[in-house]
Amino acid sequence: FTIMQRLKTAIAEDEFEVYYQPVIHLETGKLEVVEALLRWPQQDGSLISPEYFIPLAETAGIINDIGLWVMNEACLFCAKMRAEGFEHLRVAVNLSTLQFQDGKLPSIVEFALAQSDLPANALELEITESVLMDDVANIQHQLDALASLGVNIAIDDFGTGYSNLSYLHKFNAQTLKIDRSLVTQLGPTNENLPLVTAIISMAKSLHLNTVAEGIEHESTAAKLINLGCTRGQGFLWSKPLPPDTLSQQLKSHY
Ligand code: G
Ligand code: G
Ligand code: MN
Ligand code: NA
Description:
Blueprint: H1 3-9, E1 17-25, E2 31-41, E3 47-48, H2 50-59, H3 63-83, E4 90-94, H4 105-116, E5 123-128, H5 129-133, H6 136-149, E6 152-158, H7 165-170, E7 175-178, H8 180-183, H9 186-189, H10 193-205, E8 209-212, H11 218-227, E9 231-232, H12 243-253
Parallel strand pairs: 2-4, 4-5, 5-6, 6-7, 7-8, 8-9
Antiparallel strand pairs: 1-2, 1-9, 2-3
Bound molecules: guanosine-5'-monophosphate (2 copies), manganese (II) ion (MN) and sodium ion.
């Protein structure tokens, strides 16, 4: 079988897993959010990166099925964690541009929330800047519907693509995630410090929260706190983990 053929049966065969990575409030060190990250384990024990198979799924026309599955899984996991004592935990789910095409995203999200009994403000949807450039009217309409449910919108991978400020404003996002390529060397070498400083300051004046991704060093976290960045995510705290592992770690650490 080709990888494309196996990808098409992967949902029915229950082959996907969702891992979760903690997002920490930088000043308090508290866990606030977990980001859902899709994994496709292979029988030989290897992993194919979503960076590779998500574009394949988009080409194969199955990204909506996968996206729906991830949405339901992530909401159920977050609701379970909240019931187990992490009552303010929120979950972030990545979206592909194509998930906006058929107009069904708001009802899919509504169903996932109802099924899991998760409040809408516990869900954050991560979209990339490239999504915002696509079919503006259609996407804005659906983001408005999602916002009126109470769902939060985050702009992912900020600083890499087209940084169009007017779109940021228009789409009612609450959160800006600074791409890890701008963050990782910040502590050790000051690489990209002027750019990250400007992004955080701009986000503040637009009343947006900031999340720095890819924090691997204590020195990076310290600089980001000084710059007023809201939250952080990265290997310094934890890599993405399977739900049971994360749940066990949280219960012993937080
Ligand atoms: O977890 P990792 O760093 O390997 O993820 C690589 C890329 O795959 C990231 O850009 C991430 O946003 C994307 N990705 C991970 N899970 C999902 C998902 O459920 N849906 C979509 N559309 N993208 C995902
Ligand atoms: O595009 P998106 O931001 O959704 O991608 C998240 C990806 O970043 C995941 O694949 C995750 O594994 C990866 N990631 C998360 N934290 C770190 C980190 O500290 N260092 C590196 N190199 N990758 C990270
Ligand atoms: Mn993301
Ligand atoms: Na990113």
